[in-house]
Design goal:
single chain; 234 residues; alpha/beta; 7-stranded parallel β-sheet; 3-stranded antiparallel β-sheet; 7 helices; 10 strands
Amino acid sequence: MKVIVAENASELGKQAFNLLAKAVSKGAKTLGLATGSSPVELYQEMVTSQLDFSQMTSVNLDEYVGLSPENPQSYHYFMNQHLFQYKPFKRSYLPDGQAKDIQAECGRYNQILAENPVDLQVLGIGQNGHIAFNEPGTPFDSVTHEVALTESTIKANARFFDSIDEVPKSAICMGIANIMAAKEIVLLAKGESKAKAIKAMVEGPVTTDVPASVLQKHPNVTVIADQAAANLLK
């Protein structure tokens, strides 16, 4: 596991973009993408770059159950706003949060991932060490599944909705085994609130109590953290 400490969020985005551009130059065909605040600067770099993604495939980590792609809080909407409207891919896959049969949708998504092996996966990390919506306790051999969102996640997301009752209660999410199948992983972390999780992931034991700690077992992981997120590392 390689750790890069970036001076600030802008530098973090540039460092992440350099790794992504290198993967593309080596023939990467499929990028695994994340939502949330962590990859925003990376997507800004991608948008202003000369890179062409029109022959590439993207697969996203997760999507809320019940939200339409047009809902401003959906991850479909997020990806369009930050990346796809400027830099379209040949194919872009996200789970269908409005699927009538969620279990069947999870199976369909696992099949998409099997047919489109991820060359480089972008990740963020939660304050409790979760990756995607894989909360503490998620088995390391999990594949795409429906996740009941924890009370703390629902409360954290309430700020984006008119009321807490509107916050989705579950999401469809790639499992930890799906994430670990990527050839290369780049995990991004910003802010002091992520410092404990980064320390536990990099220096702690590998345990389902800190889902991100499993990345210690991956052969090609780069962690890019700003100074605040890295300040507890030895």
